[in-house]
Amino acid sequence: MTRTPTIADVARLAGVGKGTASRAISGNGAVSPETLARVREAVAALNFRPSNAARALSTKRTGMVGIYVHDFAGDFFGPILQAVDGELRGANRHMVAANGCGLGVGAGPDDGDARQRALDGIRFLIERECDGVLVVSNALSSEDLDMLWSEKAPLVVLNQTSPSKPEHCFSTDHELAGRLAAHALLQQGHRELACISGLHTAPDNALRMAGFHAELAQHGVIIPPSHQREGQFSFDGGHAAAQALLAQGLDFSALFCANDTMAMAAIACLGKAGVKVPDQLSVLGFDDSVLARYTTPALSTVRVPSVDMAANGCRFLLNLCYGLTLPVQREFPPEVVWRDSVRPGPHANESTPAVQVKMARKRSPTFKA
User: Matching PROSITE patterns, A to Z (predicted)?
Assistant: First the structure.
């Protein structure tokens, strides 16, 4: 029987000590480029495969990073998972993913207590000895995050901020993004508006809707309660909300939806009712999801760089867990992406004051990775 090569065999062939060979293979610790090249040549020549169990015992690291997302479905979380997996593979680490389905109180993503399912899912990853955990959940409060940060695994939060550990948070400015949405519709001459928000308990939704309404109010536009609906960030929710708005009559010229999923469902609902987008009604989404450009008409939206947030949050966590020095970016400005679902509104030719979004923002502090 052919003997399985060991780290000692690699070290002997490369002409280095076992400790040096181990550092070169694991990526933990300084090794010169020449030595690294020799060790890699020896690994390839021997077809050496390091034991994860042995590496975990020697380094007290498993090489696994966990990520919790609310749901694996949809076109928001998929690109985030792909970005994180790519970053981890590039650093020779691996991803363990969990979501809210079947955890905690509820049996499915829409049952039971979303907050408790998130806490259960994150603790599941911590108990599996993940070296660090990324969290994408709008069900957790700052107090919940503080509690999780007190536990043993390093934690990085995506798409949410917390005053207690801002350096561990990677998010866009959702309030500014909401203002940009309002600015876009006002700029196009729309003043009679309707909106479909996400979950009112979600921090990101609360910020973007607050920014949206605040910008409108600065220009004398108030959306009546009858023109506001909650769609819970889902296709079904967006479709039902659009139906409810249509039942009251089409006395608005533009509709803002707090994510693209709801906007796409609203466009489908409007089409079934014989309402042409954008000829009769303009629709603006939020996120710039991968499907937005393929709707009919293609969806105008506020782009949030969620993939960039995920990649940089993952790099920060890799640096934190393994002593790496990967570059980390912290600015993720939102922007309007114009496609075909918004056209000039009934006030486009009126001599109204120019709309100016307050773009001044505090410069992000510099954090050590």
Answer: HTH_LACI_1, HTH_LACI_2
Query: For residue 352, what are its two tokens?
Result: 């109204």
pLDDT for the residue 128 = 87
DSSP-H helix ranges across 104-200: 114-127, 142-149, 174-187
d(CA 126, CA 257) in angstroms, rounded, equals: 35
Q: pLDDT tens digit string along 276-325?
A: 999 999 999 999 999 999 999 999 999 999 999 999 999 999 999 999 99
Please, are residues 169 and 202 in contact by the beta-carbon 8 Å criterion? no
Q: ω into residue 33 within 30 of 0, thus cis?
A: no
295 and 220 together in one domain: yes
> Are both 178 and 292 inside the same structural domain?
yes
In CATH, what number is assigned to the domain containing residue 277?
3.40.50.2300
> Lowest-pLDDT range, 54-58, 198-202, 262-266, 331-335?
54-58
- Give the span between the Cα atoms of 174 and 206, in whole angstroms: 9
Report the pLDDT value the prediction gives residue 277, as an integer from 0 to 100.
Answer: 98
Residues with Cβ within 8 Å of 317's Cβ and at least 6 positions away in sequence, in order, are 65, 132, 134, 154, 156
Looking at the structure of the chain, the number of domains it has is 3
